[in-house]
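Q: Structure for this?
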Amino acid sequence: MSLIKLYFAEWRALLADKAIVVTLFGGVVFYSILYPLPYLHQVPTEQTVVVVDHDNSSLSRQLIRHADASPKISIVAHATNIQEAKSLIQQGQAHGLLVIPNGFRRNLMLGKGATLSYGGDASYFLIYSAVAEGLVQAGMDASKQVQLVGLLARGENPAKAEKSLHPVNLNAVPAFNPSLGYTPYVVPGLFLLILHQTLLIGTGILGAGQWRNQGYWLDVSPIKLLFGRLAMFTSLYILFASFYIGNCFYAYQVSMLGSFIETCLLILPFILATGAMGVALSCLFVRRDIPTQIYLLSSMPILFVAGFVWPIAMIPEPLVMLSQIIPAIPAINGMLQLNQMDAGWAAIQSFWLQLWGIFALACLLAYWGIKRRQLEVTNLPN
Amino acid sequence: MGILTYVKREWIALWQSPWQIALVSYIPVLGVLCLWWLFSAGLPKQLPVAVVDQDNSQISRMLTRHMTANSVISVEPYSELSEAYDALRQAKVYGVVVFPHQFKNKLLTSRSPTIDIRYNSQYLLVGKLLASQIQISLGDGLLKTAEQKLLLSGVNPASLDVNLSPVTSQTTALFNRNTNYVGFLVPPVLIALWQLLAMMVFANALNQELIAVQKQVWLPTDFWTKVMAKSLLFLPIMLAHSSFILLLLYQYLNLPHAGNIGVLIISQAVMLLALWLVVTLIFLLMKEPARCVSFCTALFAPAFAFMGITFPTNEMPLLAQIWRLIMPSSHYIDSHVNVVSYGTHPVQVIGQLTSYWMFLPLVPVIIYLWLKAPKQEEML
């Protein structure tokens, strides 16, 4: 059987298997819409806050209006006491709390100082940070205004007063992902993981369905079978990868800072290494419904160990070491640095070499595994 | 035959499948422990931040010391700006702080110098945390210089604080006091994992009931008794695993919890029944093992994203909010947060179970599919 013939035989085997077709084509397209769906609004805005205003003065009302004007906060209720506010938060009608103490304005005018209390529901981190940022900003604003009035009352020159209120500018700017959006944060890593997992599942189901059965795969040498299969899956996954990286990244406003050539250079060993790893692991399966389950269970740990959700320095060292054998780990890190963080090719070369290393290792394992599976069938008394 | 005989048969069938045994014994335990270990650090600390000090004055060094004192930040001095940015791009540091040339000079002559802060917002959680911590540390340090300045200009020491910040603020994290990641992220992650396991165990058990005769698939006539028996067997097993999760988190790790955790087990039981209803529907639609598992996977794999813990539910597009309700785990996680954070009374938690009503319309569909499906007496 020539390599070309084998290549088409592989395609036929793939397309004839409905389970694989559903998982690969259906899964890749379905997930590209479903996974980013919750995050499409990118940034949490207008988080609900309940106010307890014990002061009821012009200044406290102004403060509330300023807080409400912040894009991050929406004042939904006025409670008469903290108990009432608490029950509103427990019912889920509000996620934050602003308490203005009694005598707020009076104390400020007398130059005594006053304390504002903010609370945010830290069961939800994004809500908490949005509420805290919004309220702190409104509070600081009020503080600055009182200071300015004080300085002007003491006869300070307005221009100078302005200066002395802002002695230093803190210019904090997000370096990448400038909108602080959630899809540009999740999508780049997640989509590579989807490609990785579906490719593993595809090779797994295909292998599990063939071992122990007669078929074309017995007529070729293990090396040939491995390369025929890799060629077929690589051509399919180049298509999927182009759809994800070329189309979906663009649609979800994920920045692409690397050049086309560099991205292709990185994706090629990723697909090859994952494919070879998939063929190698497929030699362990004989039931067609198992690969999907095993790879599904591994998805969440791989996603978290990749180090973009949870800082890699906080992950226990043994887990990080262990994860280096998974093609998705160097691929996600390399891709993030190349395309989202603009690190340049020199910086990600180690990831690229690691992927080729995994590919070489996986090829050896796959060769050995296929050989054993072929011997197993030919040795069977027919 | 009584239902007990069926349960016994399921038990024997369970022991004959090594994969099913793995799914109900060591895989959940290993998975739970592994995911917890991943997040066990709990609070991010000592995150590397590059400091480029082009001023090298007493004030810039004082500000650097203030950042060093912050437990979240680990200061790494860089002399070249370009090197610092390269390190940021390669994720070796998560932030860069630049003190400009003549920073002290400008500060003393009140020409408002600018401290540049860049943080890695591609790693969103880390980036946001660092941005606020760096600003808090620097703000605190700058307060010291402002104090000196005021004292020099003859302000009474007693009224110093008020002059500096007339309005002080006190920010409190409600419910998850120290904003611990273990308390925030690990419960939903583990629940998502547990849901996947329960889905697989049940789908596999259903798949065993298919009778394939010459490319035709048949269902046994006593299918429903078998489904009942499966539920009776796997319900306590899966609840044992979820109780292990609850015990690990709220007894062994002693994460703060306001309410009675025990009531959550009832909630989990209802969640499992709803989940298995969906699995049964998919099974009757597919009637093929690999496809049934693939389809269930496609449906439940993104459950974590839809729970609304990492990204708030009310910010999701409408379609996502509707899709969210198809996942039993999102119904459950609401009860979970209610009990753990708000200490909701058990009676109210049981009342929340009515939100599962939307799974009931599946019942007539399932019955219809069952009536249509080809059936066969089991050959004994």
